[in-house]
Design a protein that fits this description.
The chain is mostly beta strands and 191 residues long. 3% of the residues lie in helices and 46% in strands. It is globular, with a radius of gyration of 15 Å.
């Protein structure tokens, strides 16, 4: 069977039945992969300090295995309650890619299933004073070794201290019977 859904990284934010948190300076407050508006994977960061090295999904659709969210080695963890928070983003996409400035997670279908994903969404927050939080995001996948954008660029977080919903619609639906790792690259960071 095909699991047509959204991948959602959740924290304490309820978007209908979606919750999410993610980075700080962009504190991602949610990430979701959508395909026919069902959450495939969700991360709930409520009660978390924000500086945890990784986190495990708390919501998984039937036919989808648990996932782990982590940072690329170009980012550093920072404290921000109820989030998965990071600093160290670059000003350009090229520098972000070269510097490994990304948040990563894998969506893995169970045996006998395949996943269908149309978008990824999350809540992001830039903090004040702004110490380099990204305003623009692109999404890349392991399907082509992270060489092309499958969505974006999406510039959506212009204000500080606001939680903003960011949706990255995929250029085409991803359907896969094998695990797919997603990287959200943040850039256009400004101090």
């Amino acid at each position: 069977p095909v699991v047509n859904n959204i991948v959602l990284l959740t924290p304490l934010f309820n978007l209908l039945f979606f919750m999410r948190k993610f980075f700080t300076l962009v504190a991602f407050t949610a990430i979701s992969f959508f395909a026919h508006s069902q959450v495939l994977v969700g991360f709930d960061f409520y009660g978390r300090t924000g500086n945890q090295a990784t986190d495990v999904s708390t919501q998984n659709a039937v036919g989808v295995l648990p996932s782990i969210i982590s940072r690329g080695n170009g980012l550093s963890a920072t404290i921000m309650t109820n989030s998965f928070s990071s600093i160290g983003f670059s000003s350009t996409l090229e520098a972000s890619i070269a510097g490994n400035d990304y948040i990563e997670f894998t969506v893995s279908p169970a045996i006998g299933y395949q996943i269908s994903i149309t978008s990824v969404s999350f809540f992001g927050t830039r903090t004040t004073p702004n110490t380099g939080g990204p305003r623009t995001f692109v999404l890349r996948t392991s399907l082509d070794n992270y060489s092309t954008n499958v969505s974006g660029p999406s510039t959506q977080i212009a204000q500080n201290n606001q939680s903003v919903a960011v949706e990255l619609d995929l250029n085409q639906i991803i359907i896969s019977p094998t695990p797919v790792t997603f990287r959200i690259y943040g850039y256009d960071a400004q101090s």
